[in-house]
Specification:
The protein is mainly alpha-helical. The protein is 94% helix and 0% strand. It contains 2 helices and no strands. Helix 1 runs antiparallel to helix 2. The protein starts with a helix and ends with a helix. The model has no long low-confidence stretch (mean pLDDT 86).
Length: 67
């Protein structure tokens, strides 16, 4: 039983880290696109950032209903 609890926490933590990394990666990519004038890079970064932020929000909602 203890393994299941630890596994659940690890999976949740892994998802949180993955989503935060995606949001930060998008922010960096967007800034790089702005600096170089590359609109495609900027738009791709914006998409990554938004997806990461939405996943984080979904995770927070999910955690709120677990309690």
């Amino acid at each position: 039983m203890a393994e299941q609890v630890v596994k659940g926490i690890t999976m949740s933590l892994g998802r949180k880290i993955r989503d935060k990394v995606q949001a930060v990666k998008g922010w960096v990519r967007q800034r790089l696109g702005r600096a170089t004038g590359n609109q495609r890079q900027q738009a791709g970064g914006r998409n990554d950032r938004v997806i990461g932020n939405l996943r984080q929000a979904g995770g927070k909602v999910k955690d709120a209903f677990r309690r």
